[in-house]
Amino acid sequence: MLFETRFFWAVFTSQNAKTTAGLRSLFDRAKTVYVSSVSIYEVYKQTLASEDRSVARLRADTMERDFHVIEVDSGIARDGAEIGHRLRVPMADALIMATAKRFNLPCVTDDPHFSEVKRVWV
Q1: What is the count of structural domains for the chain?
Q2: Which domain holds residue 89?
Q3: Whole-model pTM?
């Protein structure tokens, strides 16, 4: 499964223990867990805006340690541009969807923009 930015933001910041436990169970049940390098960027940037650099580094390090990171290559970039143009979605969403499609992975997200891939959420 490809875990999208909203998964990480919910796990890192949710005050709802039931939601956090449900999301963590998705991680525990997944055979192999992936993250796009774009999600690392988004979590790092959002954390810098709301907390501080040390927390941003800790979160990014955790993502890199616990997940297989898929980098955006030129093929994903082109596919993402096609998706972004067709659906009129933000660049990050288009790139993450293109990554999920390339590797035929369901995407752990509650983002309604993710209409081109199978979505999994609690």
Answers
A1: 1
A2: 2-120
A3: 0.94
